[in-house]
Amino acid sequence: MHGLFRWSSKWWPGTIPLAVLWALAAWNSTLPLEADLAARSNAALRDTVLDKARMAVAGRDVTFAADAFSEDGRRSAVASVEAVPGVRLVDDQTRLVPEAKPFAWSAERDVARVTLGGSSPLPAIKNRLLEAARAGLGGTEVVDLMNLSRGAPPRFDNAALLLLDQIAKLKDGKVTLSDTKVSLSGMARDLGGREAIAAALKNLPEGFSVAANEVKAPPYVFQAYKDPVAVTVTLTGYVPDNNVHAAIATAAGRKFLREKVVDNLKASVGAPAGFANAVVPALGALARLSTGTLVVSDREVKLSGDALYEAAAVQIRAGLGKDFPQGWHFKPEVSVRPAAAPVDATVCQQLLADLLAKTKIRFESGRATIDPDSVALLDRLVETAMRCPTVNIEIAGHTDADGEVAFNQDLSEKRAQAVTDYLVKAGLSASRFTPVGYGSTQPLAGNDTEEGKAQNRRIDFVVRKGE
Amino acid sequence: MTYLATFHWGWLLASLLLGLAMGWIAVVHRGKGVSRTTARWLAALAAALVAASLTHVVPGRFGYWLDLGLIMFALYLAGCAVGSWLRDRAISRHRA
Predict the structure, then answer these.
(1) How many of the other CB atoms lie within 10 Å of CB of A52?
(2) A31 in contact with chain B, both atoms CB, cutoff 8 A
(3) What are phi and psi for residue B27, nearest 5 degrees?
(4) Distance CA A354, CA A325 (A)
(5) Residue B96 placed within a domain
(6) Is it the case that residue A466 has pLDDT exceeding 80?
C-alpha cells in the first residue's frame, strides 16, 4: 500500500495526454450525444398527446417545452423524458393548453374559401374537422385558423361535424358554436336550403341548442330574355309549381308572336305571393319590346330593353306596375329603338300584310275590346305605319257568319274603330286611317268549319294608294 | 453512468490503457514526484470536482464535459494503479 502512494506521485505526466484525450472526446462526442438524447426523448413521447412540443438538448440536460391537454398528461410527459437513459436534468417548461371560456368555434364561408377558426379540443378532433370540411365541400379551399384549447363541451366534435355539413349548404355565411349555443347567418346556396338547414339542426347532439338562425333564402329569380337575332324567348329560373309553369308557358306562347319559347324553368318552393299575376303581365310588356330582358327577383320586376316607339315606351313604364299584386315593385329601364328607314306604299302594304298573315288581332268574344295578348302585334303594326307616314290606310273589320247580320256589321265596325283608336293613341294621325266594317260579307274561307270561321274573323290593313 | 460507458467505451478504454502504461513506467521512473502538499491539494481539487458533478451544479455542456473528464480520469487512475502493481510484481519476481 505504501508502494502505491510512492508510485502515484509519479503518475502525473500521464495526465497531459489524458487531457488531450479528454479534449478530443469532448470535441467528437458532444453533438452525437445530444442528437442521440433528443431522438430518445422524442421517441419516449410518441404516445403522448401534446401541442407545440419542443426539445432542446445541451450536453445531457434537456429543456422540454410543450402544451399538455391535462395535468396528468403533462406530468407523465415530463416523467417519461426524465426516464430516458442518459438524460441528467430536465428543465420543465411544459404548461397546460389554455382553457377557452366560452369555448368558441366557427366556420365561415365566402366566395373563395371556408375558414375554420376558434378553438378545437384535441389535435385529433381538429384534424377530423379539417378532413370532414375538405371532403364535404368538394373543391373549395379550406383554411385552418383553429387553435387548441381546453374546456370544450361534451360531444363538441359531433356538433361541429353537423355544422360543417350545414356550411356546405350555404353560399356564404358563418356558423358559430359558443359553448353549447349555435348561431348561423348567411345565404343559403339553393332555394330550400334554409329549410334543409333548419331541419338538420334538430339533430344537434344533446345539450346543444340553436341561439340564432339567420340564414336567408336566396332570391327567387325568374328571367326572360327576348333575342331578336335568334328569334327566341328564353325563360330561366324558378316557378312555384307545374300549374303555374304551364300557365306561364301558355301565356308566353300567346304573347310572343314570332319568337320560339325556350323553356328552362324549374319548379321550386319559396315563390313570393302573386308570382303568376306579376310575371304574366310582365311577359306581355317584354313582348312589346324589340329586344329586352325581364328579371323577376323576389318581389322586384326589372324590365330593360327597347320599345318600338315612344308612346309604347311611355305606356310600358307607366302601365305595367299598376297590374302588379300588392307589395311588388316595377323598375322599368325601357328606351326607344331608333326609327327604321321609311318605305313606299307598296312595301308598306307588304309589311302590314306579312304581320297580319302570321297572326291576327284578337278581341274578346263578341265584343270590341282588344285582347291584351295582341298588343305586341299592334305595336309592330304601328311601327310599320310610322315608316310610311304619307300613306292612308283602311282598317277593315270582318266577322264570321254566326249571329245576326246587323250585329256582325256593328261588331266589325266597332272592332275596326278600336284598332284605329289604338293607332291614334300611339301617336299616328287619325286622318290617315279609315275604319270600315264589312260584317261577314267578305269571307276568306267557308263559314261551315270552326277553322274557316276563325280565318274570317279578322282585321285587315289596306293601303289606299293615290289618296 | 451506464449510458456514458456504453456511448464512450472507446475513449474510456483509451484512458484505461494510458493509465496502465503510465503506471507501468512510474515504478521505475527516476524523475521527481509530486510533493505531499501538492498531492493533498490535487486530491482536494478532485474531490471538489466529483462533488460538483454529483450535485449537478455545472449546467449543460460544461456539466457533460466535467462528467466525461472525471470518468476518464477515474479510469486513468485505475489503469495507473493496476499498471504499477503489475510492474512491481514483475520486478519482484525478477529479483527473486
Answers:
(1) 10
(2) no
(3) -60, -40
(4) 37
(5) no
(6) no
Give the one of B8, B29, B56 whose C-beta lies nearest to A88's C-beta.
B56
The 10s digit of each residue's pLDDT in A292-349 is 999 998 889 999 999 999 888 998 888 877 778 888 888 889 999 888 888 888 898 9
Q: What is the domain extent for residue B83?
A: 2-91
State ipTM: 0.90
Domain membership of residue B15 (yes or no) is yes
Per-residue confidence (pLDDT) for residue A191, from 0 to 100: 80
Q: How far apart are CA A440 and CA A404, in angstroms?
A: 10
Q: Do A90 and A118 form a contact (C-beta atoms < 8 A)?
A: no
Number of structural domains found in chain B: 1
Q: Is B20 a member of any domain?
A: yes
pTM above 0.90, yes or no: no
Task: Quote the radius of gyration of chain A (alpha carbons, Å).
Answer: 43
Count of residues in chain A? 467
CA distances, B57 to each of A27, A93, B54, B61 (Å):
22, 19, 8, 12
Per-residue pLDDT 10s for chain B (96 aa) are 677 777 888 899 999 999 999 888 888 877 777 888 888 898 999 999 999 999 988 888 999 999 999 999 999 999 999 999 998 888 888 876
pLDDT confidence of residue A1: 56
Q: Each residue of A443-459: b (16+ CB within 10 Å) or e?
A: beeeeeeeeebebbbbb
Chain B partners within 8 Å of A11 (Cβ): 19, 22-23, 26, 77, 80, 84
The grid coordinates of residue A162 equal 353537423
Residue B87 maps to a domain: yes
Task: List the single residue in B with minimal CA-CA distance to A63.
Answer: B60
Distance CA A429, CA A160 (A): 74
DSSP letters for A43-63: HHTTTS-EEEEEEEEETTEEE
What DSSP string describes A146-177? EEE-B-PPTTHHHHHHHHHHHHTTEEEEEEEE
